[in-house]
Records
---
Amino acid sequence: MIPLKDNIPSRTTPVVNYGLLVVCGVAFLLQLSVGSKAHEVVERYGMVPARVTHPDQPVIVRRPVARLREGILYRKEALAGPPFNPYLTLITCMFLHGGWMHFVFNMLFLYIFGDNIEDRLGHLGYLAFYLIAGVLAGLAHLLSNPSSTTPTIGASGAIAGVMGAYFLLYPHARVLTVIWVFFFLEFIVLPAWLMLGLWFVMQLFQGSLAAATPGAGGVAWWAHIGGFAVGAGAVYALRGVGLIRRELPRAIPATGRIRAYRSRRPW
């Protein structure tokens, strides 16, 4: 499910959210600019669970060297470490991405849901919330596979925290969503609680499946799950002590409305 637009305009300029989009964009362009050495950037600044759990030990990985008749020949070598304490990679990994699709979809989710959370938490509060949610999401992934030598990158965990906050603060917002149905695209308006709730259930299903399948990898499902839970839990706690800015009643301008409709377009 891919959100395209919600019907909750922000009453303040989301300068921090825009700043996060820019920083992630610049970091991604820098990744692309180094060409074939991009994997070295990922290995140095991505979060490698085994490196964080054992910071004093080298992380040994197997790299393919040649394809032989008998199979693939590998060699063992140590990953290049970051130029700072490995714990700081829990922050740097949030600003790296694994490709255009990874980057574009993450930024789309952040653009749609982040401005409203910044509206309710304030600029500095939102920045702290985003970074803390991202770090705790990374720790959730680390705890799910502490011996993994695969670098973890992406803003998905922090953005999942934003989505968890939105789930509690704007459950009845309307979200224009694209759903793939075989070779067709289904455009449908969903309440935020349903769209985000389904997304979270999908992460739980995939995370449980990956945990039950040795060697499964590719997506940090538990970072998504942990980030969403942290975001929702933080908003619940902050709202209980009155630290969430109250949403003021307002008329939504015509440009902010989403008309309920369904249409099917061929892929």
---
Amino acid sequence: MVERIRAVAGVGDGVLVGIGDDAAVLEDGLVVSSDMLVDGVHFRRDALGAREIGARAAAVNLSDLAAMAARPICLIASLGLPEGFHPIDELTAGLASHGVALAGGDLSRAAVLTIAVMALGRAERPVLRSGGRPGDVLAVTGTLGGQAVSGYTAPVTPRLEEGAQLAGVARAMIDLSDGIAVDAPRLGRASGCGARVWLERLPRAPGGEDYELLAALPPGVALPPWLTAVGELTDGDAVELLDVAGVPVELSGWDHFR
């Protein structure tokens, strides 16, 4: 779907990185991300309160900035509100709960609760998906799988500080919100590489974070304690997810249209 859109979208003046990365990069280091959350697709109102929904909508976008090693400037939110939706103050508080200003947006009536957020940030040295090289170490922040274990009710925290610290260190980076089975191949393809991930090395969560980062770093670089090496980029284009015995495992991640 994204490839079909990119084929006809083009790139305008002042756009340095367009469709296909975690966020767009414009002149002067401006980084822009946009995501939409829809009730019944990305969350369920019977499982999450309005504040948690707002926090999640902001986190999705801020995590994309983190993957570009950008620091946030502000958020813009457009809200489609169904008939009888009252906790707008709680929803707004959730959007602002990560300490990033909500600077504007739009309101409309909608059949189901719909939240479209744009995050603006700035990066002196943006990290793209495309800079990895064969032999690079693949490493993840934090722990993975907590949202699935908790039924998508646990708090979410975008890795903004960690992403910014990887500027000038990581050769490539991607947000892992769609799952490592989807996002590791994306990073590999963008870098013109294959990838090998050892599943037993993945730091697992009993509950909690899901908006983690996958970074490709030069071999021999000392990893900070909040990064865990889980694999490597390889020659070719094959992507292998291996169990403890080295046997390939078939896994699927999030797909909006499956």
---
Amino acid sequence: MSKTLKQKTASNIVWSFIDRFGQQALFMLLGIVLMRFFLSPSDYALISMIFILIFLGNTFMDSGFSNALIRKQDLTQTDLSSVFYFNITLSVLLYFIVFFAAPLFALYFEQPILTKLARIMALSIPITALVLVPMALLTKAINFKYIASINIFALFCSGALSLFLAWKGLGVWILVIQPLTFGIVRAICCFWNFNLWRPSAVFSMDSIKDLWNYSSKLLLSTIIAGIFNNIYVFFIGKIYPVEDVGYYSQANRYSELPNAAIMTAIQTVIYPVMASIGEQDTDALKKTMRKTIRVASFVILPIMLGFMATAEPLVHTLFGTKWLPIAPYLQILCVGYLFLGITTFYNNILFVKGLSSSYLKFNILYRVFILLSIVLTMHQGIVAMLVAWSIVAILFSLFLMIYAGRKINYTLWEQVNDILPYFILALLMGAGVFLFTFWIKNHVVLLLSQIIVGAAFYLGATYLFGSKVFQEAIEMVKSKTAR
């Protein structure tokens, strides 16, 4: 990797982190206030029941074209305009499909209000279609400073409105209005700046077909992933009380939060960088991949293991006693997401190497085993279902590491050597701070003690053992401060 590309990558990883952490910090603060003072587990359960409809609508609308636009080297204005008009048209059609499908979900879950909630929330599909091409171009240009500004501003506006509406007593409708407001503000920001891209009065079906050859496989993979990421709601919502859906959905949301913030921040930058390297330069791909895995391990492992160790005081302090049932769910889910988070980057190898069909096959196999685990455990309780999912997630991650690593000559032994030092330190940290639960009874004091001691131990240990990633992070911070 050239020095210029390396510096550009490092700088944009910082901005991508600002984007993701800024969004997640604001979103988490908003969630804490809403969960603690205004909303109940049942409110979140209702939104979880219709989320799959909105997810599928947005996924079909995107149709994998975002990744295809980022990957294609010789993009034309005709390509961009064609995708823009195609997505807008498709989004309107999908809205009406969701509109007429909503009563079926209300009937299945025996919750009549779901019809109205889904029909209003589905307006996010055409709104999202407006920003698909501009956001893909910003990502392709690795302009994450502008992306961060747009996203954080949009979330701040939508969050402020949500708190006002919560104060007015709108209840579950807050969870519908917030994402709509976010999408509207983001669309306005994208098109307010006239230096950004504008569509032309041109459409080519040939451009759509060319991009579709790549994007179609990603589309099917994303659809399968989305369905199975939400499939537990269908079983829990039908078999168990509605409150349990709310407990599960929030446990899943917060256990996935580090991946959503950290892994996505790195992934958003690394994918276009690896795409720019190209599939032929295996040595450069391996070098980039190894550094990415070390950085990801350094960051994500202590956070996930720390989540597991502090789950109960964390829930008690932030959300209140009414949400304590999610603590064991958080701990179990963190195990699976720990492995899935690190192996997120292995998908880049498959994408860059043009192995989207292999990506599809792996995901189908993964989902088949998830479905099998659900069938075997769904009447044994939610804990049993989540333990089974974590086991499947670990096995899938190991398989992907071996397969994708072979494509760039990145052996499993090298991968273990890159991950293991950070895993051992994070495990010692997690085990150490968990012992505090036997000595400190006040949950606020306990949580603060665990965070302070755990962070000091982990960062101190990585510094003393001469972690290269830690030194590079310090140098990056110093260079930013100097500017």
